[in-house]
Amino acid sequence: MKVATFNINGINGRLPVLLGWLAEAQPDIVCLQELKAPDRRFPAAELEKAGYGAIWHGQKSWNGVAILARGREPIETRRGLPGDPDDVQSRYIEAAVDGVLIGCLYLPNGNPAPGSKFDDKLRWFRRLTKHASELLALEVPVILAGDYNVIPTELDVYKPERWRDDALFRPEVRDAFQTLLSQGWTDSLRSLHPQDRIYTFWDYLRDAWGRDAGLRLDHVLLSPQLGGRLIAAGVDREVRGWDKASDHAPV
Q: What positions does UniProt annotate as the active site of this protein (predicted)?
């Protein structure tokens, strides 16, 4: 099973990029973030033509998450992260595909930090950690994939000293990510490439892509039932260089 996560940064504007990558990479399951489209504007027909069933949780202009499955329909199990009935942002969706539970997430950015947005990010992270613990208690194969908006270590950022006070790299956020991992999750990329400098995001500004000034923000976490079955993990970097590309690459 080939599972990917991809912050598409506007699914309709970048649909040719998505369809081209799907045809080339042929992933079995894809978690998408930042759809930036309401539910009614999700391109389900185009994706179906490409061979993918889908569920989605859209939001006008912002956020939005979706799960695609090649040759089948994902079975939706949850829409929205539990723990806050007032949370109306489209940042989490969950589905069962071929006996695996897939959680697709888009964690808040949190900038500027400190501040209310950073506090909201930490609260969302705590809710995610609680829900992740409940998923592990089911003792079934689970994948939590998405844009975590977390740079876990100095190896995951091109110039760590420039990011010390950013909400993506502050100690509180890195600690929260490590707390999540300590439940028993496997960080698939880092597990297989413990010393490699790997990026999944390059800003549009200051020629970040051309300078390879990147960050690793997109993570695929595996439950213990899957961690031992991991055989490969990587980033389709070349997609970031395509015409009208997202600022993220598929993981």
A: 106, 147, 248
Instruction: Work out the angle at residue 72's Cα, subtended by the Cα atoms of residues 17 and 16, and round it to the nearest 5 degrees.
Output: 10
Q: Give pLDDT tens digits for 202-248.
A: 999 999 999 999 999 999 999 999 999 999 999 999 999 999 999 99
Map out the domains of the chain with their CATH numbers.
3-241 (3.60.10.10)
Return the active site residues: 106, 147, 248
Residue ranges in the chain whose pLDDT is less than 50: none
Q: What percent of the chain has pLDDT over 90?
A: 100
- pTM value? 0.98
